[in-house]
Design a protein that fits this description.
223 residues; mainly alpha; 11 helices; elongated
């Protein structure tokens, strides 16, 4: 479908056909490491079991401990779930490869920050269980927002006018669209990394505030 679309509309969204195919396989490679469909954190289950009470009294930061665990999971899934689809795409369809070491480093940096942005968002969704008791509704809304606004379905550059400008400044764009543009060499490196880092800092700060809030009042469902 992407090939047919870009053959009919060459240069659409600033991509050629190979760029569009590459975009597809890069975004597929992001699904596992960034948990774009949600989840990946054990906090909701620990709230339901009551184990969160033990987590909150430990000397280690709940947020940083969970982040470290998530980064390890993301690194593993990038190797076993991310790279194979890219290799298949390269063999079957052919994909764009970064031109040099600098572009590779820019992409890897953008990918790493994108994982932190994804964690920051999912951490807030997970902590919502402390007040909502059930995370299923929030998880579904989160999945829809992430799927639509991250660029996982189609490049966000396809959206027109003010709506296109709006989606590009949302945190979800920092998860998929921007690191993919860094891979393709379609985005300014320093500005893109700074924008991603800004959203990572904002989400982590909100997560820290939410963690302090649940220390004062949390409804434990079990244990």
């Amino acid at each position: 479908m992407l090939i047919a679309l870009w053959q009919a509309r060459p240069g659409l969204a600033g991509y050629d056909v190979i760029d569009a195919v590459t975009f597809c396989f890069i975004t597929q490679a992001f699904i596992g490491p960034m948990q774009l469909f949600g989840g990946g954190l054990g906090i909701p289950e620990r709230i339901r079991s009551g184990d969160i009470a033990l987590d909150l009294v430990r000397p280690a930061s709940l947020q940083l401990w969970t982040l470290a665990e998530d980064l390890g999971r993301a690194a593993y899934l990038f190797l076993v779930r991310g790279i194979p689809p890219m290799l298949i795409g390269a063999v079957v369809f052919g994909i764009t490869v970064p031109a040099g070491l600098g572009q590779w480093l820019a992409f890897l940096a953008g990918f790493a920050v994108a994982v932190v942005v994804s964690f920051g968002w999912r951490y807030l969704v997970a902590l919502s269980v402390c007040w909502l008791l059930d995370d299923r509704g929030v998880a579904v809304v989160s999945m829809l927002l992430t799927t639509f606004f991250s660029g996982m379905l189609v490049p966000l550059h396809l959206f027109p006018g003010w709506f296109g400008d709006l989606v590009m400044v949302m945190p979800w764009a920092a998860m998929v669209q921007l690191p993919t543009d860094l891979y393709l060499g379609k985005a300014p490196v320093l500005e893109t990394l700074a924008f991603q880092a800004l959203w990572a800092a904002i989400l982590l700060a909100l997560g820290a505030l939410a963690t302090m809030a649940i220390r004062h009042k949390v409804v434990i469902q079990g244990g």
